[in-house]
Amino acid sequence: MRTPLIVGNWKMNKTASEAAAFIRDLLERLPAAPSAEVVLAPPFTALESASRALGPDAWISLGAQNLHWEQQGAFTGEVSAPMLRELGCRYVILGHSERRLLFGERDEVIQKKIRTALTEGLAPILCVGESLAEREAGHTESVVTTQLNGSLAGLTQQDLATVTIAYEPVWAIGTGRAATTEQAVTVHRSIRLFVETGWNHETAAAIRILYGGSVTPQNAESFLASETIDGALVGGACLNPDSFATIVRIARTQKA
Ligand code: PEP
Predict the structure, then answer these.
(1) pLDDT category, 255, cuts 50, 70, 90?
(2) What pTM was computed for the model?
(3) What is the pLDDT of residue 146?
(4) Which CATH class is domain 5-254?
(5) In the chain, what are the domain boundaries?
(6) Is the pLDDT of residue 256 over 80?
(7) Would you say the CB of residue 173 lies under 6 angstroms from ligand 1?
(8) Element (H, E) at 63
(9) Of all atoms in ligand 1, which is nearest to the CA of residue 93?
(10) 96 tagged catalytic
């Protein structure tokens, strides 16, 4: 019922020409198939060339890695939702831990961005997750719940239908130390319960919850075999077309 979703977050990697070459390579390895949705999130500067490389009948969607909550104005260095839409973006990653930690993004700002994304027709992928110290102190669930509350409060059931949540423990991102499937499943269950309590059963049953944090072709099967994990947000392993294609193939098989 929930279509699995594999998202490649390129972060600050690949120029416009490298993006086009990567996509040509990926499309040769990976024929279209409806059993899993695939999103690529290149840097802003590569969105246009990525869109062209994906072509007019693209089956892979484009996502942005951030946006500003205003539509336009005096915000030097920022990019707005209408700009992203015009370049063909359908998704936007919001609240990534690198945005939170390195750029000071707080839940109130993330909430504004989510609302703008929804109004402007972009589907938000909201990232939440605890630090190692928070996990070791036994605060994982409360940290994640606070982030969810701060970013999603006040949204309607209809809004939630367009939102994807990515559970990304900060200690697992880019470290090669992925969560265990059991750790991920436990947090995924508490996220779904949060949605059920805050909205209703239907919304909780429909929302996609991804796992992110050192997902590789080697460990993807274990995560994606779980009924509660609806896909993956992939950083490092998405920069290599072979690894990324393998993860997509695993999602297609596991969720068929
Ligand atoms: C990420 O940045 O969202 C991520 C999951 O990175 P990595 O796969 O490299 O841990």
Answers:
(1) confident
(2) 0.97
(3) 98
(4) alpha beta
(5) 5-254
(6) no
(7) yes
(8) strand 60-64
(9) 3
(10) yes
